[in-house]
Amino acid sequence: MVQRKKINVPFLQLLLKLWQRAKRLGGFLMLKHYVEYMFPGVRVQETSVREIPERDVSMVKISDDHIAFRFFDRNEAVVDGEILAGDRKNVSGWHYLGEKMTLKQVVMTYGNDGKHNTLINSMVLEDWSAVVKARSGQFFPLMPEDTVIDI
């Protein structure tokens, strides 16, 4: 026996009103895609955001000063002529531009120079399996959701 679902008429009426209002205002609820770039700052890393047509790593425009980038989405709607943006969602891991280094590689490369003791200690204490040496020379922990694009 087929079970029929009861139609929620007030909800459909509300949905119709919202659609008509959005159409009249020239906008709808839209899912938009963005890329967030990370680059060196004066004291901390800086970021900038750009809208993109799709989340495609091969289509991302990378400049020489970028350290990494990641994707995110958000819903946007036009209400009374004003663009309202929702929270970030579907945030990807960072795509780092640099070289992946394990603890063993960091110790073998920098272990005796005295300048990288904090990095080595952080890797051990925080249980980082690897870091990324960015083309800027800075190191970043490589989280499971992150990737490295060799340069």
Q: Can you give a write-up of this model?
A:
The chain is α+β, with helices and mostly antiparallel strands. It folds into 2 domains: 9-92, no CATH class; 97-150, no CATH class. It has 3 helices and 8 strands, in the order αβββββααβββ. Strands 1, 2, 3, 4, 5, 6, 7 and 8 form an 8-stranded mixed sheet that branches. β6 and β7 (139-141) form a beta hairpin. The model has no long low-confidence stretch (mean pLDDT 87).
H-E order: HEEEEEHHEEE
End-to-end distance, in Å?
62 Å
Whole-angstrom Rg: 23 Å
Low-confidence stretches: none
The chain-level mean pLDDT equals 87
Tell me the domain tally.
2
Number of strands: 8
Give the oligomeric state: single chain
Please describe the biggest sheet, giving its number of strands, its sense, and whether it closes into a barrel.
8 strands, mixed
What percent of the residues sit in helical stretches (DSSP H or I)? 10-25%
Counting DSSP H or I runs of 4 or more residues, the number of helices is 3
Shape: elongated
Q: In percent, how much strand structure appears in the residues?
A: 35-45%
Structural class from helices and strands?
alpha+beta
Present the secondary structure layout:
Layout: H1 9-25, E1 30-39, E2 46-52, E3 68-79, E4 82-85, E5 95-102, H2 103-110, H3 117-125, E6 130-134, E7 139-141, E8 147-150
Parallel strand pairs: 5-8
Antiparallel strand pairs: 1-2, 1-3, 3-4, 3-5, 5-6, 6-7
